[in-house]
Amino acid sequence: MAAIPNAPGGTSSIPLPIPAILRDSRVLSVVGQILFAVILVFAISQLWGSILFNLSEKNLTPNLNFLTNRAGFDIGERPEWYSSASSYGDAFTVGLINTLRIVVIGLVLTTIIGILGGIFLLSSNWLLRNVTRGIVELLRNTPILLQLIFWYTVVVASLPDARTPLTLLPEGRYFIAIRWLIYLGLAAFLWFGHLRQRKPGTPGRLFWLMAILGAVLAFEIGMLLFPTMYGQVGVDGVPLLVYIVVSLALIVVATNQLRGNEQLRWRAIGLTVGQLAGGLLLIFAVLPRDGIPFELYPSIYIGRRGIVLPEVYATARFGDWLAFVAVGVALALILWIYFGRLIEQTGRPYPRLLYGVIAIVVFTLIGWTAVSLEPTPPTIPVTQEGTTTFMTLADARTAGLLTTQDEILYASQPILYLPPVPRLNNSTGLPTGNYTRGSSISPEYVALLFGLVIYTSAFVAEIVRAGILAVPKGQIEASRALGFSTAQTLRMVILPQAMRVIIPPLASQYLNLAKNSSLAIAVAYADIVMVTQTIMNQSGQSVTGITMIMLTYLTMSIIISIFTNIANRRFQLVTR
Amino acid sequence: MTTTELKPKRVSHALEGDPIIRCENVNKWFGEFHVLRDVSVNVQPQEVVVVIGPSGSGKSTFIRCINRLEEHQEGKIVVDGIEMGNDIRNIAAIRREIGMVFQQFNLFPHMTVQDNITLAPMKVRNWSRDKAEAKAKELLQRVGIPEQAKKYPGQLSGGQQQRVAIARALAMEPKIMLFDEPTSALDPEMIKEVLDVMKELARSGMTMLVVTHEMGFAREVADRILFFDQGRIVESGTPENFFDNAQHPRTKLFLSQIL
Hints:
The structure holds two protein chains of two kinds.
Chain A: H1 25-57, H2 88-121, H3 126-140, H4 144-158, E1 166-168, E2 172-177, H5 178-191, H6 205-225, H7 237-257, H8 262-283, E3 291-296, E4 300-303, E5 306-309, E6 311-314, H9 318-346, H10 352-373, E7 379-384, E8 387-392, H11 393-398, H12 404-410, E9 415-418, E10 422-424, E11 431-435, E12 439-441, H13 443-470, H14 473-481, H15 486-516, H16 528-539, H17 542-570
Antiparallel strand pairs in A: 1-4, 2-3, 4-5, 5-12, 6-9, 7-8, 10-11
Helix pairs in contact in A: 2-13, 2-16, 3-13, 4-13, 5-6, 5-10, 6-8, 7-8, 9-10, 13-15, 14-15, 15-17, 16-17
Chain B: E1 21-30, E2 33-43, E3 48-52, H1 59-66, E4 74-79, E5 82-83, H2 88-97, E6 98-101, H3 113-123, H4 129-142, H5 158-170, E7 176-180, H6 188-203, E8 207-211, H7 215-221, E9 224-229, E10 232-237, H8 239-244, H9 249-258
Parallel strand pairs in B: 3-8, 3-9, 6-7, 7-8
Antiparallel strand pairs in B: 1-2, 1-4, 4-5, 9-10
Helix pairs in contact in B: 3-4, 3-5, 4-5, 5-6
């Protein structure tokens, strides 16, 4: 028996005539890969060649030139610039925009609803937990296509007829009194009152609260009961004197009689001083009595053809108002940083988010008031049958001579909304269900978005639940033992660790949502697939069309993957 | 005598000379299984109590009832003058005053050692970052690993992790420390470094309740030893009495098997 070199103990009776180089596992693996690549390239080139040949027979060689051709079809869900006269390329862009409208908003909503759902699935509240469990099971175990059709039917069936739509925001003219903004500012100021430590024997925050309350009550009750007193100081000298003397007496009584209970005493002094101040403000007409008018028309129509929203425009005064808002935002940022430092230094948990919100809200409202106070010009030029005449704004509006540009130019508020105008039937005068102004959200969009979001959220909820359960129980016990509340435990200990487990499967659910958006065709929503199908049918460029759709979804998926990979890396634990 | 009313200042609610932990006839069941049967113990301030017993005897469950990681169903537990009940404000107040060290360390793996230690003082006691970090530095020095502050728990050895866990519990400046088998998950050569820290802590006057199988530690440090069997305290006494002069046959059997 011949011995085989390098094969001790080999029992093979026939020595194989294979050279050593072909028994090398490294060589074999390279050769295998080359072979596979060659076969693959050959197969694809054959397939491609035969497609090209067949298509060129029909004069349909794949190319991109058709994109500039006139599309000739309308799209149900389209921006204003698109019409049937636009090109195939434009139609494709509209489809892309429609798909992105679903995917981007869908991802945000799915994340929020899914995380909440996951937390609900683990809630200690029996009802909440089991109701969520039931919904999740129902959603996960029925096909998405069926759900989309179901939601579309439900959405459409639940909406009123397009000719008798539900209207939101009642018609009318409302006033926001300027003084309420001042009260709001005072209340905000009061929030900052507890920033400094109160020294014993000085009035605290409750004093100021009671003082403001007293002033507001005195002013408002005065306005309600004696509106004629406003600014009437010269006429009724004696009652004014009596009022001041009585108020002073009350203050003295509060100061002297309530010694011993410091808190109550300061509150009583605050209330009496405040009501005197409020009364004087009323009598001397210091606080403005006026209000800023807001006109509201029926502005949201909900019918079977969709939800029609008003057009919103920035007027000529928008810039000035924006400057106020910017100041508010800057102040909020400064407060955020300042209180961030203060929290680090003192450890006191200042609600700095609340401070920021208050700063922005107050400046927004003050800005709105300030820019609205400037009067509109008494008359405006209007062009009527070639001649320009001057009319008052109200007359021009009544005469229907105001263009949208005029409305924007002469509006007294920074943001103008123009309500949708129902188009009436010429002969009967009844609504037709169409609108001459306003932007609409279609029932198809609502049904698709809703269906995709809650379907995907059910899976995300399960993923979040599993992620939370993957955090060792000891972590929760340690957190509890240190004295953290349930909310703190969830936010600082559980979720950061659960994210590590959650993100990879979450990323694949994100991709699912993006890809499932192509089911839009089931509810006739004009997404990229539906639009491109029409393009392919008309132009015959099916290979190009399919390739374009595939590249679009591929790009979308890659972008989602990049972001989730970045997030994934951030939550990895350091172990060495 | 029991005051459940809370005041904002950090004061003891117990009267002078009262035990800091008072358990009266505590009973607990896991389903049908009776884990704790009429457990009554008083622990004085600065006392070191070691709890030993066979596994499944309820000793861990007992100390976990003291900071409400487990709920007792009958009886009364009063810690630092506050009765442990369903009032979440009382539970939070008690937990602030009790530090706990676990068998599995339970450090937060996504935070550095320093953040592990400073988180609770800053978020629960509202300390400034400076104060919390100074405290963390001091405590890491005390447990002998000042150089590890910026590392993550996963980068440390078991013994080092357990010492960080002790520092984390101490950062809240608790009045009582609970140890639930702190050395059971450690390699034999790391046990000593953890026990040394615990001995130092006991000498400094901390009130401690320790569940352990380290008989040497119990003999050296304990003021009192409780022996649990089947949810009952069957024997209680000083280390000398316990190890050399055990009365109950179950204790004698246990000691004969481990010593």
